[in-house]
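Need tokens for this chain, all 423 residues.
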Amino acid sequence: MENILASIITIGDELLIGQVVDTNSAWMAQELNKNGIWVAHRVAIGDNREDILAALEEEFHRSSIILITGGLGPTADDITKTVLLEYFGGRMVVDEGALANVKWIFERVLKRPMIERNLQQAEVPDTCVVIQNRRGTAPGMWFEKEGRIFVSMPGVPYEMKGMITDDVLPALRKHFQLPYIAHRTLLTAGVGESFLAEHIRSFEEALPPTIRLAYLPNYGMVRLRLTARGEEKASLDAALQQHFGQLRTLVAEWMVADEDISLQEAVGSLLLEGGKTVGTAESCTGGYIAHLLTSIPGSSRYYKGSVVSYANSVKMDLLHVAMPTLANDGAVSEATVREMVRGALSLLDTDYAIATSGIMGPDGGTPEKPVGTVWIAVGNRQNMLTQKMSFRFDRLRNIELTATNALNLLRKFIRDAPEPQST
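Here are the structure tokens for all 423 residues:
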């Protein structure tokens, strides 16, 4: 079966200057891949007529599907629609469905009067099929040219995702004969990408042509994804399951989950299974671990709260870290994070607690404790586990890596269920 190739064009000056991060392309590429469509090219361009026309023509010669986001707003710099009219020909007309949608949003939702600029959002080239926007005012547009499909959508992620899910992908599945694609993903932590690759080299080399292995590293974790692609669903699924089972066995020592979930989801599942709760006492991470845990729906069933004890006075007053501990060992020390865990367990009344204290940078380091020095502790009322980390990155990445290692330390602590002993 011939590969169906797609190109993604994102339009907007704000993307080029870094004012807005392009998350649209990554999300669209993932959804296309799930449906058997391979993304051949991604390009970001500014709100410039010549650049948009050149990109349309270049991708026309590259791919069968061209997805375009951005430049459909009501302001003068939003020129995508007029350039599409120039490229595909025709004339601008008012789409009655889009007009009714714009009026409804302003009258019923926004409750404010419309101006002519807002009404113009219902205008589209008569050479397109309109995709109604159920989440905003700017309609999408479906064009066809010499067997190629062009789809223009708003740059607002929420609106674009609605169109892709509800309209674009179902239409593409009808238009093209797409291959079957299946993925199986597992998450590892505490092992580097290079070491993993060497460890499973023989396995990777023995994979059949229909199955590919991808390494997806991120902040101390590595996802391993097997992708099967072909026409025979049953045989592909069977082969994929067999090889995924082999992979699970090979990396069992570092495996966090044998599904495509985040570390915080894996920790949450462990807590739910045991009917346990957790709280956090965060110094250097400033509440970031709490943010990760509470980003998961339903986390209120196992997460109770946090103390962001950035100042030593808060460590002493709320978590009852002893003044001699801070004076003799310092805030960034094993002794301090152990006392922070004890204080959090008592104050938050949880089964487990996580504590972090470190020097995130760029300043604050000393020869004895340079920037990137971090102490982490996790524990319950019977046992405790600590870990010292030495990072070498910028402040944000140091915080993210600390949070990842803290969650993974808690995961291992729960998994290993140590016997009660004096702390």
